[in-house]
């Protein structure tokens, strides 16, 4: 059952990525590139997702446990340390270069594009390297 | 602003929020796509639901294409720029413990100062690079 729910959660998120056209890197760059013909759409995608999640999270957290697991597993880290500052900056640089963040890149694999596949493979290499060489805190 | 698509943005964003919320309500997990996908590859622990989540991610657009007949989207160009971008996104999301979904939606949605900071930084870096290059 956990597997089914996780599948549906991934499916819902990528339907959202597709319907909002965040799956199209040109659309994302239209938001990130302030020098050209600015497209505010991504701000509304974020706003809608946040509205649903923030209200829903409050309701869900009122319960003692999730519906299908023993406990809520929230990140322990709360310190704003070097890895998160550098990591977020490095991620942003890559995101702005092409217009892909991990979700849309994975969702766009269904297009069969070699360029998308090459991006995802390079991203997996990046995950591997960062696991091998974590940043000091 | 002739490219502005407010309706599809709001509908799409709602789906993203609902998917992330479902994972929290049912499994008690943060729907961070970079974390879940990388752990599905590099960690044995809890691998089955993480793989199922990634499978859902891969199939969503095919489902949308079935419903919206003229659904299509562009893809980047094959070349060094795309490879470097992928590498940076991988390194950055692993070092920074999250991406647009984990920090931008789930983290901000639960008012985590760490995620709010991360989102401001990757947004600023993304805007800078996309506007200058």
Automatic annotation (TrEMBL), chain B:
<feature type="transmembrane region" description="Helical">
    <location>
        <begin position="51"/>
        <end position="71"/>
    </location>
</feature>
<dbReference type="Pfam" id="PF04143">
    <property type="entry name" value="Sulf_transp"/>
</dbReference>
<protein>
    <submittedName>
        <fullName>YeeE/YedE thiosulfate transporter family protein</fullName>
    </submittedName>
</protein>
<keyword id="KW-0813">Transport</keyword>
<keyword id="KW-0472">Membrane</keyword>
<dbReference type="InterPro" id="IPR007272">
    <property type="entry name" value="Sulf_transp_TsuA/YedE"/>
</dbReference>
<feature type="transmembrane region" description="Helical">
    <location>
        <begin position="115"/>
        <end position="132"/>
    </location>
</feature>
<keyword id="KW-1003">Cell membrane</keyword>
<keyword id="KW-0812">Transmembrane</keyword>
<comment type="similarity">
    <text>Belongs to the TsuA/YedE (TC 9.B.102) family.</text>
</comment>
<keyword id="KW-0997">Cell inner membrane</keyword>
<keyword id="KW-1133">Transmembrane helix</keyword>
<feature type="transmembrane region" description="Helical">
    <location>
        <begin position="83"/>
        <end position="108"/>
    </location>
</feature>
<feature type="transmembrane region" description="Helical">
    <location>
        <begin position="6"/>
        <end position="30"/>
    </location>
</feature>
């Amino acid at each position: 059952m956990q597997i089914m729910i996780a599948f549906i959660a991934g499916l819902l998120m990528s339907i959202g990525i597709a319907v909002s056209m965040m799956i199209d890197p040109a659309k994302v760059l239209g938001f990130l590139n302030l020098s050209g013909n600015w497209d505010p759409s991504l701000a509304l995608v974020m706003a809608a997702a946040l509205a649903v999640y923030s209200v829903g999270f409050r309701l869900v957290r009122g319960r003692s446990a999730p519906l299908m697991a023993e406990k809520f597993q929230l990140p322990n880290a709360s310190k704003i340390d070097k890895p998160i500052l550098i990591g977020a900056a490095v991620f942003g640089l890559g995101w702005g270069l092409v217009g892909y963040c991990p979700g849309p890149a994975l969702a766009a694999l269904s297009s069969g594009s070699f360029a998308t596949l090459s991006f995802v493979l390079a991203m997996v290499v990046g995950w591997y390297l960062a696991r091998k060489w974590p940043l000091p805190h | 602003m002739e490219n502005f698509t407010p309706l599809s943005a709001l509908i799409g964003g709602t789906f993203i929020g609902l998917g992330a919320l479902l994972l929290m309500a049912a499994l008690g997990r943060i729907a961070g796509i970079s974390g879940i996908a990388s752990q599905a590859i590099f960690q044995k622990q809890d691998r089955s639901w993480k793989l199922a989540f990634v499978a859902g991610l891969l199939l969503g657009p095919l489902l949308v294409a079935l419903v919206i007949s003229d659904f299509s989207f562009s893809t980047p160009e094959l070349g060094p720029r795309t490879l470097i971008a992928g590498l940076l996104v991988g390194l950055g999301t692993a070092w920074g413990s999250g991406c647009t979904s984990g920090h931008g939606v789930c983290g901000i949605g639960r008012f985590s100062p760490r995620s709010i900071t991360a989102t401001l930084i990757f947004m600023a870096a993304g805007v800078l690079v996309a506007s200058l290059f």
